[in-house]
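This section describes the prediction task in plain terms. A model, or a person checking by hand, is given the sequence of a single protein chain and must write out its three-dimensional structure as a string of C-alpha cells. No templates, partner chains or ligands are provided. The sample shown here is typical of the held-out split.
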Amino acid sequence: MIEAPGERLQSLDIVRGVAVLGILLLNIVSFGMPEAAYFNPRAYGGAHGADLAAYLVNFVLFDGRMRGLFSFLFGASMLLVVERAEAGGRSGGAVHFARMGWLLVFGLAHLWLLWRGDILAHYALVGMFAFALREMRPAQMLPLGVMLVLGNTLIFAGLPISVLDLQQPVANAAQAADNARQLYDLASAFGIPAPAEIAHELALYRGDYAGIVRERFAELAVSPLAMLGLYGCETLAYMLFGMAAYRTGMLTGAWEPRCYRRWLLVCWGIALPAYIALAAWLVHADFSLFAVTLAVMTLATPIRPLMIAGWICLILLLARSGGALTTRLAAAGRMAFTNYLATSLLCATFFNGYGLGWFGYLSRWQLYLVVLTVWALILLWSKPWLARFRYGPFEWLWRSLARGRFQPIRAAQNG
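The expected answer:
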C-alpha cells in the first residue's frame, strides 16, 4: 500500500491494528489455560491433531512477532509524539515521561487487577530508556539493536544450559535435592508442571476475584522488574528498529512496492525455514524441557526480528487504501490501547471464575473460536466509535492524564 504524503501515518494504524488482533492468537492461551501451556503444548490443552497444529502455526508465524510489531510501533510512535510536542513548542522529554509514567500506572493496574500477562508496564519502563537513544541515526540504531538482540539471546541461552547442567548426576544428596528443585521450577514454566500445580491454577482461576487478585499481588509484585531483566534488551532493540523503520519510511508506507517485496522475500526467506526447522525439531524431541528452552526461548530470538520486518512488508503490501477491511484495521489500530485493555476485560470475563468460568475447559484449538469472536467485536466497534470521537476511551484518558487536563473527545463534525 503506497499512500499519499498526507496519509502516510495511516500505515502505522494499519500495522498496529493487525498487531492488536494478532497478539490475541498467543495471549489467548494465557487467558484460558495454565501458564506453562503457552510454551509447551504437552503441559495442557492438547498436543496432538488440531491442538498441535494450532501450537505449531502460532510458533512458526506469530509467537513473539505480534509483540514485536507492537514494540516496533511503540518506538516509532515515541518519535512521532516527541517530534509533534517539540514542533508545538513543548518539551519532548516532559511529554514523553508523563506518558510513560501514566502508562506504568495503567500497566500495573492491568497486571495486578486484571491479567497476569500485561505488557504495558514493561513498555513504560523500556520506553524511558529508549528516549535517550531517539536522536541516533538509523545506521546507528540498527547495529545497536542487533547487539541487544544477541545479548538477550545469550541471556536466554542460560536456560537450556541450566537444564543440561541440572540433569547431570551428582553424588552429593543435598546438591541432588537442590538440582531437582530447580528442574521442578523450570518444568513449571517451560515443561510439564506437576499435577498439583495444574490443579492449583485451575482452582485459582475458576475461583473468585478476590482470590485471583491476592495471588497476583503475592506472585507478581515485582514481575515488571523481572521482565525488564529477562526481555528488556530485546524490547529496547525492537523499539530502536521501529524508530529506524519510521525514519527510513518503511513504517510510513513511503517505500516502493518492489522494496517491500524484496525485503519480504529476504526476511522470510531466511527466517521462515529456520522456524519450520525448529518446529520440526520440537515435535521430534516431544517438547522436552531442553528442546523448549533451546528452540522457543533461545534459538528463535535472533531470527525473530527478520520475521517481524517481513510482517510489516506483507501487511503494507496487502493493505488497500480505502478498502473496507483496511479502514477497520486502521480504526482498530488507532484504538489499540483501548482494544488491548478491552480484550483483557472480555477474556477475563469469559475464562475466570467470576465470569463464565471457562478456564481450562477448552482445548487449544477451541480457544481460537473465542479469538474470532473478540476480533469481530474489535473490528465492528472501533470504526463507529471513531466516527463520533477523536480517541478511544483509554487513549483519551491517557492523553488527559499525561497533559494534566481533560482533552476534547468529540469528533470535530459532532461539535
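For orientation: Residues 349 and 355 are 4 Å apart (CA to CA).
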